[in-house]
Write a structure and sequence with these properties.
FAD binding (chains A, B), alpha+beta, homodimer, six-stranded mixed sheet, AcylCoA_DH/oxidase_NM_dom_sf (chains A, B)
């Protein structure tokens, strides 16, 4: 579907929104890209990949060869750059997981044997980890790889129904190889999970090989174009040399050599989760672009009797739905930038043997992945529903955005599990403070915890809601919830519960603590970013948005701030008044602020989100070209309706 | 897709859950149905419509004739009964809107001419109200019906792109008639919206008639089986007698006769919204059945090191996701019962000329429609995501439930608009109290408002969290938020804003007030229902659920209760502790409580929600029968992959 057709006249409502800008949109776009050069680079790639090609359409199998050829031709290999252009397609796992895993874990001999043909797409691979009965908890995986020294082979086997590999993208029909995660057994002992390259289909005929029971797992919420698959291994033999042996090894005699460090695969996970944080921002920025542009051209009901129907963007309730999400989109884009930058910096350190900052980044990436994807997931639907009925039409693009995004709450670490990983780090940090240690980094606010939380800051009679104060209040809130979670664990222990049960009986509190920690971190990153902006116009509008992000969160979690004693019941209406003031402040810049995201019509692919605002004409055109309209009388009339009428 | 195949052995985990029940499930089912007789009636209908027919499958066009024939054969015409069995199909609007509108608004002559052929499905009708540019605000509709006395015809016309009728179900390809809502012009004057029967397609060939531009609006989020359509009327002439004239009339000379009361169409709207409230409960009960049964058989991770992976239902976080929704499902089912019962009672009064209770029921039905659909909408997704990756598979049924339910947040009155309708009633009531009037009915709590809210109840040092106290606290919360919204309007007026702008600038507060009012009402209905239960076992478990519903809401809106001064910061951890205690209390009965909803496997159609718990076997079977698996090598290999490989 394409909704980027051209009309000569811009909708007058949206034209008016673009007049009298108080800031330079291009400068803001540059900040989002990380500099003017990177904006140019992004646009060049977009030109080449998307705009120059009238036939280009995401996710359709026919566009894939074009895309891959172009990526190779123009040497586009930076995952952050590719990330802007990939949409669910059957080769995504090949590109995003199979090739990188080879790069990371294959020996030089394996690189020769597998990487080159994979680069040329003779080998098409997938990454088979999740099993029908096992997800985030990797130790529970059941697939076995048993070494047989007599033949120098591994026997790959799925012993149960629950051990069938399930979900890998491209596994069902597309891939001819898979990297399979399996429990390694050799010399009668289990050595835990290792990775093996398993040929699945014949290179010539593409028929499944002996012992390979393979297929598509059936229709899903979305991703119709991707053949997520299942794989049942029935005593399949592969050569010893197909185990990825850059780190761990099995020698010809069957002896096992442990990897030097179990933390070496750690980095990729942190990197991917950091990308997801930024993606949450991208996706929200797309949805806000669609919903805010549409709200600028949609007229409905009345505010003042007898006057023309107002733009729905003038309704306070509509602003209240969309502007906090607009602020959140910026917040998450900046958080994504921070994560990637920090990852790159720390990776440098790691190469020099310094792993000290890794645990903190690991903990933060887990929590932020959950925090941002949950928020964006809900936010997409708020945007969709703010477009009324038309948001439900796929011409709006919003339903597709939702079904493509929502799996990220589950994959790369189920969100609740992620929050609890962060909580584990927070609890450890809290115990360190209690033991008298001085913490540094993101959790340094816990140093002050027992001075402050137990006797909260005196509430000043005049409520101060400026941005820096708000960052402090979020810090106090996070500290309080960390402390309460720790207390819950202690109380459970005091009631005689074992350590594990005490933990489980406190997980509601632990998730809340992680959530508050992440919220604080995102706000802090937003504030810090705004502080760096030199251009006065951009600085001003971004300060307003950061402020809105903070105040809106305070409105949602008033209870926490009241509980922490940094706010009184009598002051709550001031928070609400401040929020309303900020919504009114954002209103004149709302369309400009989504323009700055620089989503091209052809990539947004939404009749509601069109840059020129000609929504209704485009929607009518889109509908008329619907498949059902190819004939005036649909075949179902003859097939179903006539026979039914005949029976009555 | 069918997932109701039989396995001989019940999964041992779910078998264990059903042992040692503390209450009689059948008695609870009877309460949900409104008596043992109605349970039997429901099961009889289910037997006839669904279970006896091995080919029956919802929503597929082939099942439709069977279903309609059976409804006629067994004389099933009660909308509440049909409501259990209908799923999105192209004839839904014909059955649910076209026929009832004829019954309500057609003259005897029109009944002869249209109803009989419609009952026999010669005429297939839809209800064309919404336009591309106009939704909930009916006065904004643009379609015109201009009376021409010379020919005794109405000229039906769509003057603009935005006036094209858009969305009606079955309009695109199925219907040959529509009831069209249009602005009536006669003798040079506009008389507002009236309803007209417009033939769309030739009865023989089904081809569109002259001047009728008609088609499908294109792919949507869901409802693939329904041809939602567009209709552009180009000076289409219909006879004068095609205006629905039971109430309003246009005489042959063109003079207009007003209907006696504009409130006569009112009732249907209230009834439909009341049905939606109950539907929100049904849908949540389905999702809870799926998620809770699956959580009882799914094992994952570990609580205690070295022990077997626990049922995920034993994780506190999983309980925290699902049990409050389970309580909400019961709350909404009871609220739906209350609304239909009250509607029936008041309808009786209306027939005797007493309209006094109608405004309150109208206001309540608007707000509850929004309150329950928003909550259920979010709740479906919480249930889906609580099933991990498998929730994303359509074999779980959860994606389909979501896309079928989510439009109810928009149709029959957009939810934010609905909340503001309720708010209008609350503000009117509040002004009446201020003027010294004594209110009765649901808003009588506002009588106490200025004694109580301004000087909140003294907080007792020992926090009392029993159910009756909680109902009182929700009442105080609602009263406070009504008062704050009224104050916001007054303050805006005092700042010199006109009445309409003062209202618009207070709509955030008004929506919150309505939300709190609805929350209070639902809790009160739940408590009242529980009070009527005589059986001690059922009473006990339902008390726990009602208590959980109340405490969970208090946890979500702690800020309001703190602000109202009925809770202190130091008491908040007690609320959290109480919540955890209730989750643990519900745990042993969780599976029994979803069994009591009595959703048959064949209707639930979910591999995860199977009564026998044989989830993995059923999922594997379902996947193997996926359309993509008909051949071992999919055609895309030859069509796309081979050419791509050849190019590299």
């Amino acid at each position: 579907m394409c909704s980027a057709g051209q009309y000569t006249i811009m909708n007058p409502d949206i034209l008016r929104e673009r007049q009298n800008a108080t800031f330079d949109i291009e400068k803001l776009t540059n900040i989002l890209d990380g500099g003017a050069e990177r904006t140019n680079r992004r646009r060049e790639i977009r030109e080449v990949l998307v705009l120059n090609d009238p036939d280009f359409d995401y996710g359709t199998p026919t566009s894939l060869p074009t895309m891959i050829l172009k990526l190779r031709e123009y040497g586009i290999s930076d995952p952050v750059e590719i990330n802007w252009y990939k949409r669910g397609n059957p080769l995504e796992i090949h590109l995003a997981m199979f090739l990188p895993t080879l790069l990371n874990q294959a020996t030089p001999e394996q690189m020769d044997r597998f990487f080159t043909p994979s680069w040329d797409l003779e080998i098409i691979g997938t990454y088979a980890q999740t099993e029908m009965g096992h997800g985030t908890h990797l130790r529970g995986l059941e697939t076995t790889a048993t070494f047989d020294p007599a033949t120098q082979e591994f026997v790959m086997h799925s012993p149960t129904v629950t051990s069938i590999k399930w979900w890998p993208g491209g596994l069902g029909k597309t891939s001819n190889h898979a990297i399979v995660l399996a429990q390694l057994y050799t010399q009668g002992k289990c050595h835990g999970l290792n990775a093996f390259i398993v040929p699945l289909r014949s290179m010539g005929t593409h028929m499944p090989l002996p012992g390979i029971v393979i297929g598509d797992i059936g229709p899903k919420f979305g991703f119709d174009a991707v053949d997520n698959g299942y794989l049942k291994l029935e005593h399949v033999r592969i050569p010893r040399e197909n185990m990825l042996m850059k780190y761990a090894q099995v020698k010809p005699d069957g002896s096992y050599v442990k990897p030097l460090s179990s933390k070496l695969t750690y980095g990729t996970m942190v990197f991917i989760r950091s990308l997801i944080v930024g993606n949450a921002g991208i996706v929200l920025s797309q949805c806000c672009t669609i919903a805010i542009r549409y709200s600028a051209v949609r007229h409905q009901s009345e505010i003042r009797a007898g006057e023309a129907e107002p733009q729905i963007l003038d309704y306070q309730t509509q602003q209240h739905k969309l502007f906090p999400l607009l602020a959140t989109a910026y917040a998450f884009l900046f958080a994504g930038q921070y994560m990637i930058d920090t990852y790159n910096r720390i990776s440098g350190d790691i190469n020099q043997g310094d792993l000290s900052e890794m645990p903190e980044l690991h903990a933060l990436s887990a929590g932020l992945k959950a925090f941002t994807t949950w928020t964006a997931n809900t936010g997409i639907e708020v945007c969709r529903m703010s477009c009324g009925g038309h948001g439900y039409s796929r011409s709006s693009a919003l339903p597709d955005i939702y079904v493509e995004f929502t799996p990220s709450c589950t994959y790369e670490g189920e969100n609740t599990v992620m929050m609890l990983q962060t909580a584990r780090f927070l609890m450890k940090s809290y115990r360190q403070v209690q033991a008298g240690q001085q913490l540094s980094g993101a959790v340094s606010y816990l140093n002050k915890v027992h001075h402050r939380v137990m006797a909260p800051q005196a509430v000043s009679s005049q409520l101060d809601l400026n941005l820096n104060t708000l960052v402090d209040l979020y810090e106090i809130r996070a500290a309080m919830l960390v402390e309460l979670a720790a207390q819950s664990i202690q109380q459970e222990s005091a009631r005689g519960k074992c350590q594990e049960d005490s933990w489980n009986n406190s997980t509601i509190d632990l998730v809340r603590a992680s959530d508050a920690h992440c919220h604080y971190m995102v706000l802090k990153m937003f504030r810090d970013k705004v502080d760096q902006i030199e251009d006065p116009g951009v600085h001003s509008v971004m300060s307003t948005l950061a402020h809105l992000y903070a105040i809106h969160g305070m409105g949602n979690f008033t209870g926490d701030f009241l509980q922490a004693g940094v706010l009184t019941g009598a002051q709550v209406p001031s928070v609400s008044k401040c929020l309303k003031g900020l919504l009114a402040e954002v209103r004149p810049s709302a369309v400009l602020l989504v323009d700055a995201f620089d989503h091209h019509d052809k990539m947004l692919n939404s009749v509601l989100g069109r840059h020129d605002g000609n929504v209704y004409e485009a929607m009518f055109e889109w509908a008329r070209s619907s498949p059902l309209n190819r004939t005036e009388v649909h075949e179902s009339f003859h097939k179903h309706l006539k026979p039914l009428q005949a029976k009555l």
